[in-house]
Structures are given as structure tokens and as C-alpha cells.
Amino acid sequence: MIRSVCGYCGVGCGLEYNENELIGDVAYPINEGKVCSKGVSELISIQTPTRLLRPQMRSTIQEDYKVCSWEESINMIATAITKTPKEKIGFYLSGQMLTEDYYVANKLAKGFVGTNNVDTNSRTCMASAVVAYKKALGADFVPVRMEDIFKSDLLILAGANTAEAHVVFHNQIKKAKKEGLKVVVVDPRSTETAQDADLHLLIRAGSDIDFFNLITKRLLDEACYNKAFVAQHVNNFELLQNKFKRVPVTKMLKRTGLSVEEFDAFWELYKNSENIITAWTMGLNQSSQGVDKNLALLNTHLLTGKIFKPGNGPLSLTGQPNAMGGREVGGLSTMLAVHLGFDEESIRKVSHFWKTKKISNKIGLTATEMLEADLDVLIICHTDPIYHLPNRNKVERLMKKIPLVVEINAYGESETSKFAHIQLPAAPWGEKEGTQTNMDRTITKQQKLTRTSIDCKPDWEVFQLLAQALGYEKAFHFSNTKEIFQEYQKMTKLNGYMDMDEADYDTLGSVPFVWGEKIKYFLTPDKKGNLFFVENKLLSERATLEHPFILLTGRTRDQWHSGTKTNLPKTLLKYKELNFCEIHPNDAKTLQLKQGDSMKVISKRGELITTAHLTEGIKEKSIFIPISNRDINYLTNDILDKESLQPDYNHSAVKIEKVIHEN
Length: 663
Ligand SMILES: Nc1nc2c(c(=O)[nH]1)N[C@H]1C(S)=C(S)[C@@H](COP(=O)(O)OP(=O)(O)OC[C@H]3O[C@@H](n4cnc5c(=O)[nH]c(N)nc54)[C@H](O)[C@@H]3O)O[C@H]1N2
Ligand SMILES: Nc1nc2c(c(=O)[nH]1)N[C@H]1C(S)=C(S)[C@@H](COP(=O)(O)OP(=O)(O)OC[C@H]3O[C@@H](n4cnc5c(=O)[nH]c(N)nc54)[C@H](O)[C@@H]3O)O[C@H]1N2
Ligand code: SF4
Ligand SMILES: [Mo]
Known about the structure:
The protein is of the alpha/beta class. The protein folds into 3 domains: 51-120 and 321-504, Rossmann fold, CATH 3.40.50.740; 127-316, Dimethylsulfoxide Reductase, domain 2 (3-Layer(aba) Sandwich); 549-658, Barwin-like endoglucanases, CATH 2.40.40. The protein is built from 23 helices and 26 strands. The longest helix has 15 residues, at 99-113. The site of one ligand MGD has 30 residues, from helix 6, helix 14 and strand 21. The site of iron/sulfur cluster (SF4) has 14 residues, from helix 1 and helix 7.
């Protein structure tokens, strides 16, 4: 029996591998034996004909790929890097890479190639939460854990569909409910999560700042904020209080689409709950004001002092298995490594540690900026930007202009593969080992369960080969993931509050390590939390007469993003279709659409064909299409949050046409 962990979502469930069978690990603290359909299907996805098994290359994207050797492909990339100015080189990483993969890639790019153009798909996912946590709490630090729901009285889930996106956590929520936890869901759709809640607030997409500000307004007006906590631990209170004297309450409530009665019912519950956790994900982060939405939420916890104590706190639900680990390593272009920035002192410390003089003090390009920057070399690992970036027609145009696009992928069928020049075969989950940090700071270890396919390599090895070809053998001579993890552990000591060095690589498989458990205080220089006054500036794309619907996008339970691992003949779990569009029956009637009809959805930027699914679970004039439809981002707009540069995937204006099939 081998004990490993699931490589899909940020819950990070423990698994047990017995003679070709995967089951939940009963002894694992996170899931206590429970798993979802994705977890148990991990094994099947390793054995598919769609795996990428050999390195291959081509001179232009019009040609077919030809199989080549590792040596040939790595040398070609190394030569291109040597000839290219470093600001024209980009590394596009992923929250699904393991910590060791991330560490080697980040060390190579920032430490030795000398470019900070290292960013990750987490930019499209968690960037708003990162920026807000740093502003309000002082660091990208999640101050509450999943298990706290059992000590809490009220869980608010805002813009999060745990029933489909964090399945095992959702099961625990249901268990906690039986023990008395009340659950409020704030979502413009009546999701399965909403159906399980005590109260569902069907708010208008994009109005979360108004909603959280309405809570703050009540806290201030009814003086039920925590005066002692605020006085001792929180900055900017007077400023906030003054600003809130003049907020337009009626207008704010109107923008949320909630009635006075609905908000009052919520307020009664809120006011009378001793312990509160607010959890959120993409409904808040993916927004033109994603950071502000986060700050409005964080304000409520700072004002009530419901933070750093059991059963309380703002819990950002990380989506990918190692998005948090990647950020800790330094996978975002806006930080250097181990949560350190690009200030002189940090660069000095990291340069000394890596024994290099190449680190630049210039913040790198984000994933959402890279394609516009006329790069000459782009290395993409474990993610599919052609599929996932917004405004796909534009993304395709820009990608085509890059002279060398390298894709490291375990599967051959990504959308990006159509635009790459070199494809390198990675060893996927099960064929490699390494660590990941789940959504609540738990470091877990994926184990190797089967032999690595002959020509595939774990992602870290690919970056190490490249580093060696560039002449950096001295800094890159790791022989296994344990050595990398241990170097990373040493590095975390450069940052006072990180305590990963206490973890033991060898036992992580069965005993996960939770870092930061001693941190029960703000990580700002003055050890105080910061309140910020934010307002809904209505910056998202608006519905117009021509494009009267707002498109929401998101997940379904059994599919993982582009589906390279889940949309396979053997694993295709028919829980939900891959391609459908939720639409309100009244809107469908106006458009003469019936259940199952073919429909064309069109935005200013592009279009796609989908199938009507009539449901009263969505607000009128909004529609929802799951991201298992790989064409989804032909529709979406590329408006970004000004601070986090995260896209606004959930607010694109579209029109709908019925597709008439000729017989
Ligand atoms: N099955 C499955 N699970 C996954 C993934 C997957 O691909 N498949 N991906 C993982 C990843 S990377 C991530 S980031 C997470 C995402 O996890 P979630 O964010 O929980 O998943 P989404 O389906 O994107 O849900 C976002 C919710 O926000 C709502 N929403 C949209 N706009 C607004 C708004 O303006 N305000 C509010 N309050 N709500 C809004 C949507 O209706 C939707 O219900 O899931 C992770 N888990
Ligand atoms: N419209 C819209 N767009 C979105 C979102 C949305 O909600 N709406 N969500 C955004 C978010 S939150 C996210 S996280 C992104 C996700 O977007 P992506 O990261 O592009 O989605 P995935 O399909 O998970 O891509 C992972 C890739 O890694 C490959 N892979 C699998 N295993 C391995 C391995 O071991 N090594 C390597 N090198 N490759 C491997 C897979 O084959 C796949 O091509 O999408 C973003 N885009
Ligand atoms: S809940 Fe997440 S981590 Fe757990 S089995 Fe499902 S996909 Fe894997
Ligand atoms: Mo994500």
C-alpha cells in the first residue's frame, strides 16, 4: 500500500493505492477516507492514448510536429535563451506544478536567466486574494483552516460553489451543518451549494462590494463592531467610519438586487453569530475590482475581530492543488521567492542564498501581460493559456507572433499545443513525486505509484536540464525531489514567519505538515490589520441593448478545466454535459429557445455554439456556461483588476441567437 494525495483541487485529499486501486485514506486528517470522482479517477488518466510521450518540435506552427531527442530540444531552447535579451523571455507556470518543480523553475528564471517574467495561471485565479491579504493582513497568509468550520457558527460562502469545486470540503460543511453550523451562500446562481444552504442570497453579479459594505455599515451604525480589537489591532478605523457616514445605502442594496427583508434576515443571523468564517473564490477574485471585493470582505473580519481565533476568519478557497505552494516558492512575477519582494534587502538575501548576481530588481510581467509584451521566448509548463486566458481571439493573435513557444505538458491535446514549436513530455501525477500546499497551509506529498513512461520527465527535471544546458550545473545538480525540498526549506528561513523547515520530507506522505500554525497576529510592520474603504466603481463590462446578457463561467463537479485528464472516454463521468448554457425560462421564452436547443452565444470578441439548459436557478438576463466548453474564452472580456491584474471572467456582455439546423 502506498499513501499519496490527490492532484486536483486545493482540498488535497489523502489517497491510498492498493494493487491498481485508489481509495480515500481513512487515516488522513483532511478527508478521513472521503474522495470525489476526480480523485479516484487519477489513475485512469495516466493510462490514456492522449498522453504526450516524446519530445517533438517543428519550425512553424503550420507544420506537423516531428519527434526529436531531449538533447536536441533542450539545446535549441538554451541557444534561443542565450541569444535573447532577458526581458524578452517569459516563464508561464501553473498552480498545479509541485513545489519542487516551481522551485527549480523560479530559481532558474529569476536567479540565473535574470528575468522576473515568471508568472503562473494563479494570476487568473488567486491574484486578487493575494494582493488583498497582503494589504489587509500584511502577507499572503490564510489565517483560518477548513476544520475551523466545526468550531464556527456561521459560514458565508461568497462566489464559491464548493459542492462542485471543493467537493470533499463541501461534504464536511454538510457534516458541520448537522452539528449546528449555519451556511449562507452569496451567488447569482442557485448552485448545488446554494441549495444546501440555510440562506441563499441571489445577488447580482459584480455587487459583492456593495454587499460587504452593507454589513460594515450595519456594524458601524449599530455599534456592534469589536471596539477593543479595533482600538488595539486595527489601522484606519476613523477614516473608514467617516467615509461610511455618506455611503448610499439604498443604492447599494438596489445594486445587489436583494430586498430589504432578505438583507435583514441575513443581518439577524450575522449579528447573532459568535463565530464567523467567510469563504470565497472565483466569484470575488475574478473581477474588475477583485482586490476591492476581497478588501470589503476582509474589513468585516477586522471590524468584528473575528480572526486569529478558532472558528473565525476569512478563508480564501484556493482552487489548484499547489497554487499556495507556488506562491510560497515565488511563482508570481510580483514577488521574488519565499514571500520576499524586489527590495534591495530581499535581493541581497536571495542572491547570497542562490550564489548568484543575476537577480533583477524590476517586477516581472504577469501572465496577463506576457503576451502583449512581444516576447521572443515563452516557456509554458502545466497550463494551457490559449484555453484559459480571456479574449481568446486576441490571445491567439499574440501567441502566433512569439518566435519560440515551448510547451511542457503531460498530455498532447491542449489548445496551446496548436501554437507551440517545441513540446516536451512531462511525467504526470502518479509517475513522479513531490510536495504541494493545499488551501489551508497543509503541505502534503504526492508519491510515485508507477514507473515513469520512458521518455517523460518530472517538470523539475526539465527545468534542471535546461539550467545545465545554459551552464548552471553548479546551482542545479539535484538528484531527487527531497534535495530540492530541503534546499527550499533552508530558503524559507530567509523569511521570519515561514516555518516549513520543521517539516520532514520523508514522513510527509502520511503525516502532512501545516505551516504557520503559530501565526496568530497580523504580519504588517506595525502588527496591525489595515482597513480599506472601497466602493463599487462598476468597472465591468455592462449589458447593452445589443449584448443584453451577462455571461458567468465556472466549474462542474467531474470536469477539470480543459479536460485533458477528465474528459477521456474511460473517465467521462456523465454527471453533467461538457457543453451547456444555463438560461432562465423567461429569457428562453423570449428567444424561443427550448431545453436542448442549439444556441449561438456572441460577444464583441467572439462566439461559440452551445445547448440551452433552462433553469430558474439563474437570474434573468444572466447566463452560465461551464469552462469544460473549451471555447469559453472566445467570449470573455480582457478587463483586468488594476492591482492584481486578474481577469474579470464573470462579467462579459453577450447576445444569443437560436441556431436553426437545416434537415
Ligand atoms: N470540479 C472542479 N473543481 C475545481 C476545478 C475544476 O476545474 N473542476 N478548478 C479548481 C480551481 S483552479 C478553482 S479556482 C476553483 C474555483 O472554485 P469556485 O470559484 O467555487 O468555482 P466556480 O464554478 O468558478 O464558481 C464561482 C461561483 O461564483 C459565482 N459568481 C460569478 N460571479 C459572481 C459575482 O459577481 N459575485 C458572486 N458572489 N458570485 C459570483 C458563480 O455563479 C459560481 O457559482 O475550483 C477548483 N476546483
Ligand atoms: N472563462 C473562464 N476562464 C478561466 C477561469 C474561469 O473561471 N472562467 N478560471 C481560471 C482559473 S481559476 C484557472 S486556475 C485556469 C486554469 O486553466 P489551465 O491551467 O489552462 O487549465 P488545465 O486544463 O488545468 O491545464 C493544465 C494543463 O497541464 C497539463 N498537465 C497535466 N499534468 C501535467 C504534469 O504533470 N506536468 C505538466 N507539465 N503538465 C501537465 C494538462 O494536460 C493541461 O494541459 O483557467 C482560468 N480561466
Ligand atoms: S475534493 Fe479535491 S482533492 Fe479531494 S478528491 Fe476531490 S478533487 Fe481531489
Ligand atoms: Mo483556479
